[in-house]
């Protein structure tokens, strides 16, 4: 059997709401030379049924494991994959129909072994300032590739299969920043990741909506500072829940980033008019 160019690896945990969107996007890809591997962390919802619904169009390989650890799930997916390149995607991502086509063209032209993908907020979930936030994050990730401490995001990256095996996969002992750890180990091994300018993944804003934008950004900054200092995050330094079940619950009452700005603007307006 011919080796597919890509193996798309998706770790899941109670993703019945979001996973069908990504799987639907994969069925619409103009590039068809790929396999799909889903590694589920023993979900208690209908995630498996969602995958089975795409049996005739995607023929995804579904594997359920007891360990709920995103790094372990990604590594397991890599073990089951047969693609030349491994495409790691979070279950709540969305893709344009030519995503894999563009990725394949870029990889063949530039012969890269590691791609860190840009991210944009999903149109249906974004608020006024979200694009500015994500543009800043994209610039930060791109700039970091010029340093000795590059950043990445495990939820949307592409790694050559043999390189991933050589690196030993994601470090499943880390609480956070296992993605930064992987791209930095690649750098030490002599492989510099590329950040293609026209290769985007559309990211769900559900964590931002649930916890509040400022709170999530603060968590990212804290974990980034640990990375810059060379400190691996083995312990839970703050709450960072995984799994779709956390987003079906009522939010914590925090106002959105845009809502806070509007509230502040109204206070200024009232002060000026008084």
Task: Give a brief description.
By secondary structure, this protein is of the alpha/beta class. It has ten helices and eight strands.
Please give the structural blueprint:
Elements: E1 6-12, H1 19-27, E2 34-40, H2 47-52, E3 61-64, H3 70-80, E4 85-89, H4 99-110, E5 114-116, E6 118-121, H5 130-144, E7 156-160, H6 161-167, H7 178-188, E8 200-203, H8 206-211, H9 213-228, H10 257-273
Parallel strand pairs: 1-2, 1-4, 2-3, 6-8
Antiparallel strand pairs: 4-7, 5-7
Query: Which stretches are poorly predicted, pLDDT < 50 over at least 5 residues?
Result: none
- The spatial strand order of the largest sheet comes to 3-2-1-4-7-5
CATH class designation: Alpha Beta
Q: Please bin the fraction of helical residues.
A: 40-55%
Structural class: alpha/beta
What's the number of helices? 10
**Secondary-structure element series:** EHEHEHEHEEHEHHEHHH
Outline:
globular
């Amino acid at each position: 059997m011919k080796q597919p160019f890509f193996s798309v690896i998706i770790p899941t945990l109670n993703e019945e709401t979001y996973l069908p969107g990504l799987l639907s996007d994969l069925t619409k890809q103009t590039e068809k030379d790929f396999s799909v591997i889903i590694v589920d962390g023993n979900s208690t919802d209908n995630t498996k049924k969602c995958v089975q619904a795409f049996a005739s169009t995607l023929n995804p390989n579904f594997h359920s494991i007891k360990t709920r650890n995103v790094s372990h799930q990604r590594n397991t997916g890599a073990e089951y994959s047969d693609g030349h390149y491994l495409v790691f995607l979070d279950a709540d991502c969305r893709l344009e129909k030519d995503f894999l086509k563009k990725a394949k063209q870029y990889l063949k032209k530039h012969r890269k072994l590691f791609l860190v993908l840009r991210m944009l907020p999903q149109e249906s979930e974004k608020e006024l300032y979200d694009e500015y936030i994500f543009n800043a994050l994209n610039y930060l990730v791109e700039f970091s590739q010029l340093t000795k401490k590059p950043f990445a995001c495990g939820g949307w990256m592409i790694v050559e299969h043999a390189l991933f095996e050589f690196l030993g996969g994601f470090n499943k002992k880390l609480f956070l920043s296992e993605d930064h750890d992987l791209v930095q180990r690649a750098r030490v091994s002599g492989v510099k990741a590329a950040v293609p300018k026209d290769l985007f993944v559309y990211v769900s804003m559900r964590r931002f909506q649930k916890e509040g934008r400022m709170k999530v950004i603060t968590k990212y900054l804290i974990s980034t500072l640990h990375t810059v200092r060379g400190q691996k995050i083995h312990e839970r330094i703050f709450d960072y829940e995984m799994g779709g079940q956390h987003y079906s619950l009522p939010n914590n009452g925090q106002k959105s980033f845009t809502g806070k700005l509007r509230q502040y603007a109204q206070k200024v307006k009232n002060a000026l008019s008084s």
